[in-house]
Amino acid sequence: MSDKIPVTVLTGYLGAGKTTLLNRILTEEHGRKFAVIVNEFGEIGIDNELVVGADEEIFEMNNGCICCTVRGDLIRIVEGLMKRKGKFDAIIVETTGLADPAPVAQTFFVDADVGAAAKLDAVVTVADARWLLDRLKDAPEAKNQIAFADVILLNKTDLVTKEQLQEVEARIRGINPYAKLHRTQKCAVPLDAVLGREAFDLERILEIEPAFLDDEEGHHHDHGHDRDHDHEHQGGHHHHDHHHGNEGNGAGDGAKDHSHKAHSHGGLKHYHDEEMQSVSARIEGEVDPEKFMPWINELTQVKGIDILRSKGILAFKDEPKRFVFQGVHMILDGDLQRPWHEGEKRESKIVFIGRHLDEAAIRAGFLACAA
Amino acid sequence: MSAETTVPEALSLTEHVTSFAFGEHVSGACFLGEIVGFALGDGRVVLRQGEEAREIAAHSGAVQVFAHDSHALYTGGDDGRLLRIEASGTVETVADESGKWIDAVAASPAGAIAWSAGRSVKARDKAGAVKEITAPSSVRGLAFAPKGYRLAYAHNGGASLWFPNASTPPEFFDWKGSHLDVTFSPDGRFLVTSMQENALHGWKLIDKKHMRMTGYPAKSRSLSWTHDGKWLATSGAEACILWPFADKDGPMGKAPRECGVRRARVTAVASHPKALVTAIGYDDGCVLMCRLTDGAELLVRRASAFTGAISALAWNRVGARLAFGTAGGAAGWLDLPPLR
Predict the structure, then answer these.
(1) For a 10 Å CB count at each end of chain B, is N or C smaller?
(2) Cβ separation of A61 and B197 shorter than 8 Å?
(3) Among candidates B41, B119, B140 on the partner chain, residue whose Cβ is nearest the Cβ of A84
């Protein structure tokens, strides 16, 4: 299990800085060896012998799942790389600027051989601070990449004003409030911000609260759908009242980071993306697995094309362990995880990021699963 | 660890096995006369005769694909080169598709060679003339027809049959899905592919009738016809699955046979060139020989927790020796004792 090779997927619209990030990863002194799967040769600045050219060959699986597409070339390349097992520690897949990250991600869940050899670590999206707003209007691929991301590098921040930066961050949060967002210039981030994230590892899905940008000026921009705060930064305050009528409201109701309330309302804008948004729902208690499992399966089967990512942490009735799931379109991966701690509030929460999600229906459906 | 074989100790051939370790994935093995050739994940090709070993630094990177005829072995690497290596150690660079991996290679008994890199499929006849065709998608499986200079290549959506020396377009055999390996039945009546979807697909060449062979828990990536051409031995299940091809409609409407049932997945199969016996390699490193007439089994190599799945398995021409290699870098051969 633990010797599965971690795979980081780098996405980002044309010109956002993917290759800059890739070169940074490869040239940094880290003692790790990478196998890099790229689409265009010649852009990588260092002589890395484990650079593999890919074709982005996408095909549908013959399994009746209409959105179940995989990258055939990745299956072949990962299989081939396993012949050199031990010669590298991680795989980085750089997609083209116009790529949908879903087939890449799905490959690691659908193909048993690939899934046995490698595990998806995170989808990292590089966004151009100057041009992202335009791309969100005219390039559905760019919006897809933001919605799908576990980590977003908002790059080229030196080319925009502070106000423009806040604007583009607000737009990003309107689509995906859960990704870890880093402001960068020339993609300068510590490598552990993009590698070793274990974003798809059920054991590591500890919290599914909206992520915050921890920027230097103290503005934590929470455009999430709950009034939760970031537990990573606010350890110890795990239980607040969450009785807010706007929970799950894609429009967001303002920055709610408790410790920075005074600052974070200042001049922030909050956007609701008409097409792509996130929906979260919470049950302040247990869920009946006999109701939940059929519901989530039905939902992802019927709406799987529109649901890009899903996650949940659930308290099943009479079950001492937390049930955790994550999904990509129609593919769900779920398991019982660690036990609920003594004194820990047994509650159930789900999050979806997707296109034209029927928030009311999703919330009602989930609430009907209460035990 | 525990060798979960069903054979008693008395039916073991392990004392006739010569074993050694390369420490690198074994991508292929074959016999060239008395020489045993192994192709490895670090790009080496090792030619062994008894204790003597000759190493050739063939590729930078791994040997990805492997084929052989009676005179030479062929290796395709992720350095984009395709090499022909004779038992003498003579190396010829057949092709250099720099920047691309060689994804498939096939050799014909008549001395022709075919290879693919991405969508490009090339065939070189014995005289050295190279022809190229572009497939609808990347090609991972190639096979020469038993008669005539005709090549099958598997791709997304089916397989195609191509006469490299003719100007006629390839003949397309369609079936939805991604097709990986491809093989002709020895009598040339059937074409069979392995698929992404844990199944095999077959066509009767004369009327393109379909044959679906399903039920595998994993991909079936090793296919071997018995010497009489009546059975196709396959990997991918916790037994060697043999499909009957003796009748005019092949396995249609018939159940396959199983042999070598164990609690481990079959990863490689190699049918004996003269007898109804198939050598079966498993993902726990075990190798059995199984007689198809009565299912009798002989242990060749015990399971090993450390050496990985059997990744290469090949008989010599007369069926007296069997070479094997594993994903974890172990290798060796069996010298069958004389029959009593």
Answers:
(1) C
(2) yes
(3) B41
Question: From the CB of residue A221, how many other CB atoms can be counted at a distance below 10 Å?
Answer: 26
Question: Residue type at B175?
Answer: W
Domains of chain B with CATH codes: 9-335 (2.130.10.10)
**Does A161 contact B at CB distance below 8 Å?**
no
Amino acid letter, residue A199: A
Upper half-sphere CA count for residue B282 (Cβ side, 13 Å): 28
By the CB < 8 Å criterion, does A77 face chain B? Answer: yes
| Interface with B, mutate which of A61, A69, A83, A114 (most B CBs under 10 A) | A83
Residue with the two structure tokens 């060697």: B240
The SS3 call for residue B25 is: coil
N-to-C CA span, chain A: 34
Mean pLDDT score of chain A, rounded to an integer? Answer: 82
Among A159, A73, A71, A82, smallest CA distance to A113 is for A82
Angle CA A328–A330–A334, to nearest 5 = 65
How many Å apart are CA A117 and CA B336, to the nearest integer?
35
**Closest Cα of chain A to B62: distance in Å?**
6
- pTM for this structure? 0.87
Chain B residues lying within 8 Å of A75, measured CB to CB: 196
B60: closest CA of chain A, how far (Å): 9
Round to whole Å and give the CA distance between A184 and A186: 6
Q: How many CA atoms lie within 13 A of A277 on its CB side?
A: 21
Q: Which domains can be identified in chain A, with CATH numbers?
A: 5-200 (3.40.50.300), 275-367 (3.30.1220.10)
What are the tens digits of pLDDT across the range B122-181?
999 999 999 999 999 999 999 999 999 999 999 999 999 999 999 999 999 999 999 999
User: In this predicted model, what pLDDT tens digit does every residue of B50-107 receive, in sequence order?
Assistant: 889 999 999 999 999 999 999 999 999 999 999 999 999 999 999 999 878 999 999 9
Q: Which residues of B138-168 are buried (b: 16+ CB within 10 A; e: fewer)?
A: bbbbbbbbbeebbbbbbbbbbbbbbbbeeee
Q: Are strands A118-128 and A5-12 parallel, antiparallel or unpaired?
A: parallel
* ipTM value greater than 0.90: yes
